[in-house]
Amino acid sequence: MRIYLFVQLITILGVAPIWAAEKTGPVAISTLVAQTLAENPEVRFYEAEIQTAKAGRKQAEKWSNPELSLDAGRKSVRGSDASAAGVAWAASVAQPVEWPGRMALRKAIANSDVALAELGLAQFKQAVAANVCTLAYTLAMQQERAAAAAEVSARLTALRDVVIQRDPAGVTPLLETKVIEATTLIVQKQAADAAMEMQKALLELNQLRGRRADAPLVVQRAEFTFPSYPALPQLLAQTARNNYSLKARVKELEAQGQKIALAKHEQYPTFTVGPVISQERAGERESTAGIAFSVPLPLWNNGSANVDVAEARRIQAEASLLATQRQVERQLTEAALIYEGNRQQLSTWKPEILTSFKEAAALADRHYRLGAVEITTYVELQEKYLEAVEAINETKAAALEAALTIEQVSGLTETLVKIEP
Predict the structure, then answer these.
(1) Which end of the chain is more exposed for a tag (fewer CB within 10 A), N or C?
(2) Are residues 228 and 213 in the same domain?
(3) Percent helix, strand, coil in the chain (nearest 5)?
(4) Is residue 94 part of a domain?
């Protein structure tokens, strides 16, 4: 069942799709996920963050630049019996020298920044893939819902024309006509709602793909298998090891410990050392060569405040890690309950259940025309057919979203739900 079938419906209803101007072939959900990850503009943002962190790591490995100092002037010497004047100059090169271990701490912090950036990219890609899969399935699901509404609407419209042409003797035919017209309005409203949901899903998909909002897209409908997942304690253990958010919080906590060590280390002042050469010419030439050494005196700013700030940040990182752990556990448990509930519900439904409802609705239409079925039974079958389509699709969508949440939170290496061939 293709989206172009639905285009005819919403054109009749007066709802013009933003993607109707151009036709494209159906795209598989797996292909759509791969295309989105390759073209999403925010992926490049996270990749640039990794490059920035790597550049910071290179900078952390370098020594501070030496300082060149030049002094030049004129010297005058005056005494009781003579006076002289000449040029005086001095030059020095001073290299800042840090205490051993400080550069290693900065490199470790820079490595943590790189790891955090890489975790951020991996987490974003996983979230985008899950979001694209959910939106694509929603788009296809609303497509099926709209097609069923179009089928029922066409059936009701044709039947209304037949009833109107009959002999309107008595009040019963008139009331039956009104029942059919009212049901037709309700069904058309359901079709319009499905059209709007398709439009919303399409807009969000195009945004994730980095395309224009009116870019055309046809999603190939796919069916998923919903197997049982590992036991909850096993999932929680795997989550503790593989969850991207927990990994990021752990890296942040490690980095804060390194920043505390660096702040304590920086309480020892950096000294500078280097050669000094000076020369004076005032009657005689005097040259001086030596080594200069300088170190700041930590009298008013001894770095204790920086240590206190780093300690406070470490406490915040510990609290953030604990809060993230509890949040992740709640998300996983909730998703597991939702998935298992919907999976069991789907397992009780026969695969051909929708086909049987569709055939029953068509059968009721034929027998109502023959006078063998009452109007109440006829209308109820048409409505229940549409409700069954919506209920089954919503159950599948809820199971799929919960499964993707389990995969995303627990870091499962194997996809839980698979597309049926």
Answers:
(1) C
(2) no
(3) 65, 15, 20
(4) no
- Asked if 156 and 190 count as a contact pair (C-beta separation under 8 A), the reply is no
CA 303 from chain center: how many Å?
Answer: 40
The amino acid occupying position 149 is A
- Residue 320 sits in a domain whose CATH number is 1.20.1600.10
For residues 281 and 284, give the distance between their C-alpha atoms in angstroms, rounded to a whole number: 6
Residue with tokens 């509404």: 149
Q: Quick one: tokens of 295?
A: 């170190």
Asked whether residue 206 falls in the same domain as residue 313, the answer is: no
Neighbour-count burial of 324, counting CB atoms closer than 10 A to its CB (0-12 exposed, 13-18 middle, 19+ buried):
middle
Pair (143, 253) in one structural domain: no
Which of 328, 346, 2 shows the shortest CA–CA distance to 140? 2
Strands 418-419 and 224-225: antiparallel
> Mean pLDDT, the chain, as a whole number?
82
Range of the domain at 11: 1-65+101-220
240 and 170 part of one domain? no
- The predicted structure's pLDDT at residue 165: 67
- The reply to whether 205 and 236 lie within a common domain is no
∠ CA(206), CA(212), CA(218), 5° rounding? 50
Could you tell me which residues come within 8 angstroms of residue 132 by beta carbon, excluding any fewer than 6 positions away? 29, 32, 33, 36, 205, 208
pLDDT the model gives residue 3: 38
Instruction: Look at the chain and report how many structural domains it folds into.
Output: 2
Share of the chain above pLDDT 90, in %: 11
What does the block give as tokens for 410? 């627990």
Q: Which residues contact 40 (CB under 8 A, 6 or more apart)?
A: 128, 208, 209, 210
Taking only the tens place, the pLDDT of each residue in 400-413 is: 889 888 888 887 76
If asked whether residues 195 and 235 sit together in one domain, one would say: no
> What is the Cα–Cα distance from 179 to 160, expressed in whole angstroms?
10
- Per-residue pLDDT of 240-251, as tens digits, reads 888 888 999 999
**How does pLDDT run across 315-331, given as a tens digit for each residue?**
999 999 999 999 999 99
Using DSSP bridges, classify how beta strands 284-294 and 418-419 pair: parallel, antiparallel or unpaired: unpaired
The pair of structure tokens assigned to 51 is 């490059």
Beta-strand ranges (E) seen in 145-270 are 218-219, 224-225
| pLDDT surpassing 70 at residue 166 | no
Q: Residue 304 is inside which H or E element, if any?
A: helix 304-347
- Residues written for the chain: 421
Using an 8 Å Cβ cutoff, are 219 and 29 in contact?
A: yes
